[in-house]
Amino acid sequence: MNSITRPDSLDVAGIRSAFPILAQSVRGKPLVFLDSAASAQKPRVVIDALCRAMETQYANVHRGLHWMSERTTEAYEETRDAVAGLLNAADRHEIIFTRNSTEAINLVAHSYGRGLLKAGDAVVISEMEHHSNIVPWQMLRDDHGVELRVIPVSDVGELDLDAFDACLADGRVRLVAVTHMSNVLGTYTPAGEIVTRAHAAGALVLLDGSQAIVHRRVDVQTIGCDFYVFTGHKLYGPTGIGVLWGRRGLLERMPPFLGGGDMISSVTMERSTWAEVPHKFEAGTPAILEAIGLKAAIGFVEDVGYEAIGRHEQALTQHALARLDEIEGLHIIGAAPDRGGVISFVMDGAHAHDVATLLDRQGIAVRAGHHCAEPLMQRFGIDSTARASFGVYTSLEEVDVLADTLARVREFFK
Amino acid sequence: MNSITRPDSLDVAGIRSAFPILAQSVRGKPLVFLDSAASAQKPRVVIDALCRAMETQYANVHRGLHWMSERTTEAYEETRDAVAGLLNAADRHEIIFTRNSTEAINLVAHSYGRGLLKAGDAVVISEMEHHSNIVPWQMLRDDHGVELRVIPVSDVGELDLDAFDACLADGRVRLVAVTHMSNVLGTYTPAGEIVTRAHAAGALVLLDGSQAIVHRRVDVQTIGCDFYVFTGHKLYGPTGIGVLWGRRGLLERMPPFLGGGDMISSVTMERSTWAEVPHKFEAGTPAILEAIGLKAAIGFVEDVGYEAIGRHEQALTQHALARLDEIEGLHIIGAAPDRGGVISFVMDGAHAHDVATLLDRQGIAVRAGHHCAEPLMQRFGIDSTARASFGVYTSLEEVDVLADTLARVREFFK
Amino acid sequence: MMFEDLRDLYQEVILDRGRHPRNGSRLAAFDVRAKGDNPMCGDRVEVFVAWDDAGKVAKVGFEARGCAISVASADLMADSVAGLSAAEVRDLAGYFATLARKGSADDIPARFAAAIEGLRALAGVHEYPSRVKCATLPWHALVAALDGAGEASSERD
Amino acid sequence: MMFEDLRDLYQEVILDRGRHPRNGSRLAAFDVRAKGDNPMCGDRVEVFVAWDDAGKVAKVGFEARGCAISVASADLMADSVAGLSAAEVRDLAGYFATLARKGSADDIPARFAAAIEGLRALAGVHEYPSRVKCATLPWHALVAALDGAGEASSERD
Ligand SMILES: Cc1ncc(COP(=O)(O)O)c(C=O)c1O
Ligand SMILES: Cc1ncc(COP(=O)(O)O)c(C=O)c1O
C-alpha cells in the first residue's frame, strides 16, 4: 500500500496530544476525525481557558464596577484585540462578535442590506456558497427588492471571473458576498482579484472566511475587502461565537441590527440612541466565556503558525488527492489548482451516506450529504458527496487509513 | 450588629462548595458576590459538562452520519427536552435556542412583529422593562408602523393594571411583552392576570423570564402565555445560549428570522423552503457546547429544587430588606409585596458608583447604574441605583456583610 | 472481513434492492402521490399510489435519490403494502417505524405478519440513529400521499 | 478604618468637590458647550465654555449627574483650564487621560505644571479601570465642545 510521500514540517504527534478527544476510540477503533470543516476539535488550552474563567474569574461584562466584572470585561475585550491582530484589522472597533458566521452574514444582510441598499440595487453571490451565504441574500431579495446575481462555477470548481465581470457590468451591484474557500471543493477563491473588480465597479466585498481562516493567514487590509466573517468553532474555538469584521466607517453608517442592553447610548420610551461600534451591534449579554475560549484558540493557531499549518495542509491534501485518485470508481469533485484540505468525492455504486456509515464503523468520521451547498450539488449534477476534511491535527497516516478503507468500501458495494 | 433571622431550609454551605469561584478572594477579602441578577456563577457540574464534551464527545450536530456527530446531536437535542420539561412546554418543538434573552425577544420582534403584525397594530410593554424588552419594540415601531404603548409603574413598583386595561381598550393591541420579574425592583408581575386580560382583548403575551425563572418554577401552560424567554447565563449556565419558547402553531405561522444552514428544507438559487420548527429558527451551527452546559445547569436547579430555592430567596430577601432598612440615609426603590432577591437602593450623599467602589474594596460585588432600565430610572426620578442580587449560593451572612459595610459607606460619605 | 459487522445493516437484500429496485419508477397511472425529503442529508423520494376497485393499494411505485437504505426501504415498502387499505398502511407504517428505531416491534397483528417479514431486513438501522430516517423517509412520503398532503419531511429528531 | 485604602481614590478634595463643586452650574453666557455621557453607567455631564477676548478660556461651568469622581473631576477641570487656549486644553486633556489611566504622566510641559498639580488628586482612579471613565468624561465633553461636536461619549474600552 501506501507511503508517507512528503516531509512534514509540523510536529503532528505533539499537536495531537494537545487535543484530548483524539485519544478516544469509536466503535472500538481509534477515532480518525476527518470532519474538521464541519467543526474542529478543541485543544487543551481552549478547554482550560473556559474552565479557568468559570472557576476563578467570571461576571457579566461592561456594566460592573466590581473586580470580577472589570477583569472579565478586560478578558472579553482582549479577544477583540486578538481578533483584530489575527485579521490585521486597522482598528479594534471593527471587530463585532456574533454567534457564528451565519449570524454575521445575516447582520450584514439586515443592517447593510435593509439599511443602506435600495430596491433595484444588486448583490452578487456565487454558486459555491454555503447556504449561510445564500439564504440571507434571498431573504433580502424577497423582502427588499434587491436583485440577486450568481457567479457560476467552472468544471474544475473555480469561480468564473468572466461571468463575474458580466454580473458587475451594469454598475448596479453594491455588494459581492462570496466565500474565501469552498467548504465542498476546497477551492480558495481569488480574493484580491474579486476585490479589485468589485471595487472598480463600485461594489463592496464580503468574504465568508469560515473555512479559509482555518488554513491561511488572512490580512483584511492586504486583501482590501470590506467585510470578513468567520466562526469560532471551526478555528479550534468554542461554539457560540463568530466574528464580523467591517470597515469602521461602513459600520458607523449602518443601522443597528438587534436591539437591547449594551448596544444603546440612551433609552427613553420615545427614542433611543445607539452606542458606538462595535457595541452598537452587540445587543445583550455577549458570549463572554466563548470569547475567552476564542482568544485561547487564536493563541493556539498563532503558536503553531500559519506557515506550518499551510505546509501541513498542502502535504495532507496532495497526499490525499493522490491516494484517493488511485481508487477505481471514486471521483473527486473539483480540481482547482489553488485548493486546501477539504475533499469531496462520490463513489460508483455507493451513495455517500452508505460510504460514511461504512467509514464510521471503522472509526473514521467524514461528512456525507449536500454540505449546506445544494446549488453547488445541482451545478455538478449530484445530490450529495462524501467529504473528508483536515485539521492541524490530521496526520498523513490518517489519510492513508481513509484511502485504504475507501478501497474496501468500493469492494463492498461493487 | 446582625443575627440570622430565619431558619434556612437550604444547605447553603453544600451548595457553595459546588461553585469553585466562591472560594476566591478579591482585593484580599473573601468574594461576596451579590451581582447574580447580572449573571450567575457556574456550578461544578456545568463546568464539567462543558469540559467533558470537549474532551470526549464533540462534533457538529444534525448533519453528521458519524458517531461523534450522532452523540453530540443527541446531547444537544436532550437539552431541548430538558428545557421543555423545565417550562412544562406541551411540545419539545416549541423550544428554540438563541444567544440570550435579547436575541429571543428580537426574534419575536422580527419574525412575529414584522412578519405577522401590520401598521396600526399595537404592542404593549411596561415602564419596568429591561432595554432588551424595549429597544426591539421601538425598532419595530419605527420600521414597521406598529404603535408602542407603555404600562406605567406605581410608586411601590408594580404594574398599573388599570392603565393596562386602558392600553387594551381599543382592541388594537396584538402583543403584550412584559417582564415576569423586574431586574431592578425585584417585583414579580402577575403573569396569569396579565395573560387573562390580554387574551380577553385579543392580544398575545410574551413574558421576559430572564430573572423570574432563576427563582420560581415557571409553567407556561398554567400561566397561559404565548412566548416565554430566558437566558442561560443567569440560570447558572454558560453564556451564549438563551431560549425562546412559543406555542407551536404560532411558531409555525411565523416566517424565519435568520437564514442559513440548518434552517432550510431545500435551497435553489430561485427559492428556498424552510425546515420545521424549531429548526426553522436555528440558522447556522448552534451553541452546541452551551446547550450541553445548559442541560447541566437545569439539572442542578432541579436537583436543588425550586421549592427550596424560593424559600431561600425569600429568607434572604426579607432579611436583606430588614437590614438595609435600618441604615440611615439608604432608600430602597420599590416595595411590592410579591418580590424576590433583587434589591435596588440609593444613598444620600453618595452616588451609586461610589457606593459600589467602596463595597468592591471589601470584596463585595454589587452592580451600580441604570441596570439597562433607563425608563424605570426616569420613572423614579433617579439616574442610577446600587443593586444587590442573590443567587442560590448567597448566604445570610453575606447579606449581613453587605449591610454592615453599607452602614460604614454611609459614614464615609456623610 | 473489514465490514463484517455491517452485514446486519447491509444485508444482501438491501444491497440488491438498493441497486436494482423492483418498484423504482413512476406509475403510468396513479391516484395519489407525495414527495418526501430529508433536509439534513438530501435524500429525496416521490411515491405514487394506485388504488384498486376495492379501495386497497393496487400498486406503489417511487422515484428516489438516496442511499441504499432509503431506496431499499422504499422498494420493500412498495411490496409490503400491496393489497392493504389506507388505514392498514398507516398502521403498518407505525410498526415499521418502531422496527427501524428499536430493532424489533411487538404485538404486530397477524394480518401484517407477511408484510413485516419482508421489512425485517431493515431492522439493522436501529443501531445507526442518523440512518433511521433514511429507512422511514419513504413511509413518511407514503402516508403523506394517503393524507393528500403532497409533502413530507423526515425530521431530524 | 475600613476604607483606609480608598483614601487614595477618595481624597478629601474629591469628596469635597464632589459634594460642593465650585463650577457646577450652567454659565449665564457661554460660547460653546457639549454634553458627555457614559452609556454604561448613566453618568451625564454638560460643559459650558466662555472665551475671553484673547481666545483663551475665560470660564468653564458644568451641570452633571454622576458620581463623586466625575463631579470632582469636572470641577477641578474647570479650574485647571482657565486661561488656556483651545490647543492647550486639548494637550492638557491628553496628559490628564494618561494620569487617570496610569497614575502618573511624564514629560508634562512646564506651562501645565500648575494645572496638572490641581488634577493629581484624581490619579488614584487608575487602580479602578471602570472608574477611569468617570474621571475622563468631563474632559471628553470639554474637548467635544471645543471641536464643536456637541456630544461625547465615554467609550467602554
Ligand atoms: C429582565 C431582563 N430581561 C432581559 C435581560 C437580557 O438578558 P441577556 O443580556 O442575557 O440577553 C436581562 C438581563 O440582562 C434582564 O434582567
Ligand atoms: C463556507 C462556510 N460558510 C459558512 C458556514 C456557516 O458557519 P456557521 O454554521 O458556524 O455559522 C460554514 C460552515 O458551516 C462554511 O463552511
UniProtKB/TrEMBL annotation, chains A, B:
MF terms from GO for this chain are: cysteine desulfurase activity; pyridoxal phosphate binding
Q: So what does this thing catalyse?
A: (sulfur carrier)-H + L-cysteine = (sulfur carrier)-SH + L-alanine
Looking up NCBIfam families in the UniProt record yields:
sufS (TIGR01979)
Signal sequence segment: none
Q: Which UniProt keywords apply?
A: Pyridoxal phosphate, Transferase
Homology family: Belongs to the class-V pyridoxal-phosphate-dependent aminotransferase family. Csd subfamily.
Q: Does the keyword Disulfide bond apply?
A: no
Give the Aminotransferase class V domain ranges. 32-402
Q: Which Pfam families match?
A: Aminotran_5
Entry EC number(s)? 2.8.1.7
Question: Main role?
Answer: Catalyzes the removal of elemental sulfur and selenium atoms from L-cysteine, L-cystine, L-selenocysteine, and L-selenocystine to produce L-alanine.
Question: Which Gene3D superfamilies would you find in this protein's record?
Answer: Aspartate Aminotransferase, domain 1 (3.90.1150.10), Type I PLP-dependent aspartate aminotransferase-like (Major domain) (3.40.640.10)
Origin superkingdom: Bacteria
CDD domains linked:
SufS_like
Q: What is this protein called?
A: Cysteine desulfurase
Cofactor(s) this protein cannot do without = pyridoxal 5'-phosphate
Which GO biological-process labels does this protein carry? cysteine metabolic process
Q: Which InterPro entries match?
A: Aminotrans_V_dom, Aminotrans_V_PyrdxlP_BS, Cys_dSase_SufS, PyrdxlP-dep_Trfase, PyrdxlP-dep_Trfase_major, PyrdxlP-dep_Trfase_small
